[in-house]
Amino acid sequence: MKDSGIKKAILAYSGGLDTSVAVHWIKQNYGCEVVCFCADIGQEEELDGLEAKAIASGASKLYIRDLREEFLRDFVFPTMQAGAVYEREYLLGTSFARPLIAKHLVEIAELEGADAIAHGCTGKGNDQVRFELTAMALNPKLKVIAPWREWDIRSREDALAYAEEFGIPVTATIKSIYSRDRNLFHLSHEGGPLENPWNSPEPSMFQLSVDPENAPNEGVEVEIGFEQGNPVSFNGAEMNPVDLFVALNRLAGAHGIGRIDIVENRLVGMKSRGVYETPGGTVIYKAHQALESICLDKHIMHYKDFLAVKYAELVYNGLWYTRLREALDAFIAVTQQPVTGVVRLKLYKGNVTVLGRRSQYSLYREDYASFGEEDVYDQKDAEGFIQLFGLPMKVEAMLSLEGGGQSRYRKPDYSKFKRD
Question: Active site includes 18?
């Protein structure tokens, strides 16, 4: 038993294999009281019987806080408004949940007078960084217990054996050994057969979405309304964020929307294969992007696309509570002021297609863009514009010609040099 001086630790608890085993291990090895905290961010049935399970695993009590609206309003929507997508595909469903959970973990530690926080993240993953950086930013005096960096357990098979030895209630089995993370935005799957990137995902693994091949043969049209970048209505009915996402997840999931299979670069340096289900989030991202296309001017949109990559890195790397992220949010908030309107989309067998978009702040002018008659744009003006826009290229080519050469972009025609 360690003489750490820790009397009480608050464990970020999901009820899954790792955290269930961690409750018992921390008590045995640190000799301290363990209080569990679970953030309700949309796990639904995973929360059933959680308190009894935590107590049976050795915890003295369990806190559950409903953070679904805070999760969407303060973490999901700002990231979506930034257009942040990690490595072209990952919509950051796990990444932006961790700083929220850790924030409340710190609050409960202070409420309980605890000495430490604890988590069940592996020493190979990103989540350990996200939890601990948040704790550093909010209360650097708290100690951190990270069992995966200390214990002899080296695999999920080892963890299952530990649970069986000490009678710890777990739902994972050797046959179903995926590591999953679920919230209102997405469900991730890692580990097990997925560790070989050649293996196809097992059809039975998916939980939020049907196979696109088995989705309805007729698509469905939906309308998403936005106010200053925030989704506020679904098919004409105003909804709070939670109800909107619940409804959209079910509909989009029924049409096979939001499945991605990616190999990503973890913060700690290794590559990791994950399969994600993000039905409602995929639709929201697509709709928001479509609305921005008519509400943002060219310079804002292009600069915003540049910053989106940096924003995604910040979120993925656990740097939510930083001045840089706050500064980027200030910029993004200004860009979202005119992003109000409605987007119409079609969901069909795994695809999301934009059918239309409209906004009272739209910068799209039919009379400017029309290929028919117009009196607001003189096409002859384009000649002068092209001359000025291409002036640097023209000057370089002229200098080459004056020097007896040719434009460096003209390759010799080797067909003229035929061998006798």
Answer: yes
Dmax (CA) of the chain = 93
Closest CA to 393 of 381, 405, 409: 409
HSE-up of 1 (CA within 13 Å, CB side)? 10
Nearest C-alpha neighbor of 315 from the set 125, 96, 102, 149: 96
Catalytic residue from among 57, 179, 209, 272: 179
Q: Sketch out the chain's domains with CATH numbers.
A: 8-75+92-176 (3.40.50.620), 187-296+338-364 (3.90.1260.10), 370-412 (no CATH)
User: Quick count: other Cβ atoms within 10 Å of Cβ 380?
Assistant: 7
CA-nearest of 18, 17, 13 to 65 is 13
Place of tokens 């000649």: 383
pLDDT category, 86, cuts 50, 70, 90? very high
> Which tokens is 369 given?
């863009």
Give pLDDT tens digits for 40-58.
999 988 899 999 999 999 9
CA distance 403 to 208: 67
**Structure-block tokens of residue 132:** 């601990």
Residue 241 to residues 52, 187, 202, 381, 418, Cα–Cα distance (Å) = 30, 18, 32, 48, 71
In the residue annotation, 375 being an active-site residue is answered as no
Q: DSSP characters for 119-151?
A: ----TTSSHHHHHHHHHHHH-TTSEEE-GGGTS
98 labelled catalytic? yes
Do residues 160 and 173 make contact, with C-beta atoms less than 8 angstroms apart?
Answer: yes
C-alpha torsion sign, points 319, 321, 322, 326: positive
**Residue 54, SS3 per DSSP:** helix
Among the options 20, 68, 98, 209, which is catalytic?
Answer: 98
Tens digit of each residue's pLDDT (9 = 90 or more) over 252-311: 999 999 999 999 999 989 999 999 999 999 999 999 999 999 999 999 999 999 999 999
Kindly name the residue from 127, 181, 182, 188 that is annotated as catalytic. 127
C-alpha atoms less than 13 angstroms from C-alpha of 322 in its C-beta half-sphere:
13
Determine phi and psi for 14, rounding to 5 degrees: -110, -15
Per-residue DSSP letter, 414: G
pLDDT more than 70, % of the chain: 94
Q: What type of residue sits at position 340? A: T
Reduced to 3 states (helix: H, G, I; strand: E, B; else coil), residue 188 is: strand
Closest alpha carbon to 294 in 225, 352, 340:
340
Query: What's the average model confidence in pLDDT over 12-20?
Result: 92
